[in-house]
Amino acid sequence: MVEEKENIQFELTDELIEQVERLVSETKDKELKALLNEYHYADVAEILDELSLEDSVYVIKLLDSETTSDILTELDEDTREKVLENLSAKEIAEEIEELDTDDAADIIAELSEERQAEVISQIEDNDHRDEITELLAYDEDTAGSLMAKELVKVYETWTVAGCLRRIRGQAKDVTRVHSIYVVNKKEKLIGRLSLKDLIVAKSEQKIADISKDTVDWVYVHDDVEDVARVMAKYDLEAIPVVDKNQTLLGRITIDDIVDVLKEEADKDYQMAAGITGDVEADDSILELTRARLPWLFLGLLGGVGAFLIMEGFEEAFKGEAFVLFFFTPLIAAMAGNVGVQSSAIIVQGLANDDVRGSVNSRLIKEMLLAALNGTILALFLFLFVWATKGSFITALAISVSLIAVIIVAGLIGTFVPLFLDKRGIDPAIATGPFITTSNDIFGILIYFWIARLILGI
Amino acid sequence: MVEEKENIQFELTDELIEQVERLVSETKDKELKALLNEYHYADVAEILDELSLEDSVYVIKLLDSETTSDILTELDEDTREKVLENLSAKEIAEEIEELDTDDAADIIAELSEERQAEVISQIEDNDHRDEITELLAYDEDTAGSLMAKELVKVYETWTVAGCLRRIRGQAKDVTRVHSIYVVNKKEKLIGRLSLKDLIVAKSEQKIADISKDTVDWVYVHDDVEDVARVMAKYDLEAIPVVDKNQTLLGRITIDDIVDVLKEEADKDYQMAAGITGDVEADDSILELTRARLPWLFLGLLGGVGAFLIMEGFEEAFKGEAFVLFFFTPLIAAMAGNVGVQSSAIIVQGLANDDVRGSVNSRLIKEMLLAALNGTILALFLFLFVWATKGSFITALAISVSLIAVIIVAGLIGTFVPLFLDKRGIDPAIATGPFITTSNDIFGILIYFWIARLILGI
Predict the structure, then answer these.
(1) Model confidence pLDDT, tens digit, residues A93-119
(2) Quick check: helix, strand or coil at residue A191?
(3) The predicted structure's pLDDT at residue A201
């Protein structure tokens, strides 16, 4: 029976955590097991993330390895690292035996090299061990690092009936079948078919006759982000991975891609906010400082630069024109905001692969856009300054420079990410403090130059 | 045979576009068909996005509706709108007939109400029409708006053999089977099973005996973002949708969730950069202005506020203390950067549902973090000002205020998104221009206050 539930989402309450802690401290193992078995392993992982290390390890050792192996994959990286330190190589190997090769390799990769060798040597199933060792050899951001060896493979010469008989064996190890991959005698990927095709077909038909020969695939050394883009674009739920000779090596499933997409999005969002190194709200103050301080320091240098510029213009703007200094935060803010806007659009366009046309046409478009926005904003500023300060020429100087500042800021914001991308550098670093800081300095400098020109000083 | 390809990604070249344009203008229909049939429909959509409206409509009318219906779903919204305007209600209805209910409803929803009625009345398949009409009734951000009516459903009383026979019929309409949903006589969802389970089972077994009774589901009125979070967390590839009585209504597949996650990430990224309304680099200057100008205007108001504050302190800081004004861009930049950093971490934590603990503990943590970062940065600034300006007390005033500004900025950045979230407002609007602008003003105000206190003016 399906149980009733108020909400689709599991809610981690303080009561639940306290209940688990109480059961652990009173070593009521049976009750604890019964309680935790009610929850999905991803939810149990969330509970463990909140427990003390001692309690977490207690729970992991209490539950059977079929459940705990899944829980391990869902734990916070920090928690997992500490829990694994408290397990023997033998115990870790037992967890690993329960996991698909991709998850197994991910966990082993987090261990120290020495520990990796120990754990691998303790894995009893030879095939599983060899497959995991193979996966560990692939570079982190390649398709190989994401693929699992578990898949259902049939030879083109088989019949439907024989195929159904054979895949009954293979499918047991494969959590979700998705596609069945068709290979020739040399293990070369030549097509695919779905379980549905197999069920609908007549039992004496040959696989070669019912399989589809249009099969997408990726190379084992392809970049993970490219794989994600392809799978998202073509709505694929699994994609086979091949080597240079088209030999079928493994497959990547969409759930891993969902994780990749989320991580990418989180990373870009943080980078735009001036945070590096994939931190979370719950990380330690020291970790957060390491992620945040460098960018703040960059901002500090920018501020010092602005100070030096203003000091340099101190003599020029004595007397009435002095009010110009009071608009520097406005100028800096506008330069920063426009720069961030235009760079964000380019960064996103590059990520979604829909920035087409030449750099020049981009720059011209951004210039027109910035000129339009700048003129509207400058008009307001002009009226405000004229009304409050009563000086037409000062108001004109400030507002005309604002337009120039906004145009330059827009051009810098557009050019920098395009330039970085051409150079093979992740353009996402261009949005955020980097562009804000450089635009602050350029903005104030341009502002003073043009104002001086207009005021004839 | 699988054709060789250099790169996993389809590359839209100018040559290809020109080739298509040439074939259109020379009305070489056969060649054009042959050329476009080589590409995936998602790739053809990319080509059409680059063509003139006239050429796109020509291609759409040329290809058969089985292909064009898929192409339509992949077109840019702008292009699709214009193409549909050039098709008759009858022609659109023909495309719709080829699509799954969810894609069909999405396309119809984009039409004007009058046109919707026309198109719906032209759909020949009664069931398809009723299902689409049902889907159109659900609110945009609910599970109902994302689900498809196509799914494979079996009754608990069926046998495996009978079931296989029956689902052969159902499965034809369902692109990917994923799970088979088990219902009782009242259409209530009571379990699920996979095609694999069915193949592995003996043909005389009852469905009730082999089905799994732990099935996740969502309610039809659940929020789309919650559905996405659940599916990502539990690695689901499809989830059934039920009503209050647990009646099975439809299912949501992971490919739609991937799109939701991408859109969410893009939206949050843009909001953080001060852009509203989901624009792209290729949108018109007017559309981009509409998305960017309001936030720039907010920044302008902030700058005017900063000007008013500085003017108010003009008298107080005459003479030597005048240098304080030259550090206002630095103060504003630091306040803005710290505010954006802390709000980004909270916004992301809220989105990933891992912000736990009380608001107070968050604020205390952020205060400590800001104090640590602030002190390090202030020390540098102190040494710089002391060395260049030679005044110990001025250097002290500026650097101590910097610490205060950073702490307050961190607290505002932490508090605002938490507050918005409690009020049910999307906290993502708190990052970006909103927090930058308010922190600019507060920062400069606090800076002057504290500096005046220390300088004893």
Answers:
(1) 999 999 999 999 999 999 999 999 999
(2) strand
(3) 83
Sequence-ordered strand ranges (E) for A151-188: 152-155, 179-183
Which residue has 């602008």 as its token pair? B437
Query: Which chain B residues are Cβ-neighbours of A437 within 8 angstroms?
Result: 333
- DSSP notation for B210-258: HSBS----EETTSBHHHHHHHHHHTT-SEEEEE-TT-BEEEEEEHHHHH
C-alpha distances in angstroms, A329 versus B148, B228, B439?
52, 41, 12
Domains (range + CATH), chain B:
14-141 (1.25.60.10), 152-254 (3.10.580.10), 285-455 (1.10.357.20)
Contacts of A325 in chain B (CB under 8 A): 310, 325-326
Suggest the residue from B337, B365, B366, B402 to mutate for an interface test with chain A (most A CBs closer than 10 A): B337
Q: Residue A173: its pLDDT value, please?
A: 63
Residue A2 C-alpha, separation from nearest chain B C-alpha, in angstroms: 6
| Residue A372 amino acid letter | L
pTM (2 decimals)?
A: 0.82
B264 to chain A, closest Cα gap in Å: 9
Q: What are phi and psi of A202, to 5 degrees?
A: -85, 150
Taking an 8 Å cut-off on Cβ atoms, the answer to whether B368 and A285 are in contact is yes
CA nearest B196: which of A103, A178, A253?
Answer: A178
- The Cα–Cα gap between B290 and B343 comes to 25
Torsions phi, psi for A316 (to 5 deg): -60, -40
Determine the 3-state secondary structure of B110 from DSSP.
Answer: coil
| pLDDT tens digit sequence for B294-309 | 999 999 999 999 999 9
Query: What value of ipTM does the predicted structure carry?
Result: 0.81
Does position B4 have pLDDT exceeding 90, yes or no? Answer: no
Provide the token pair at A354: 């829909």
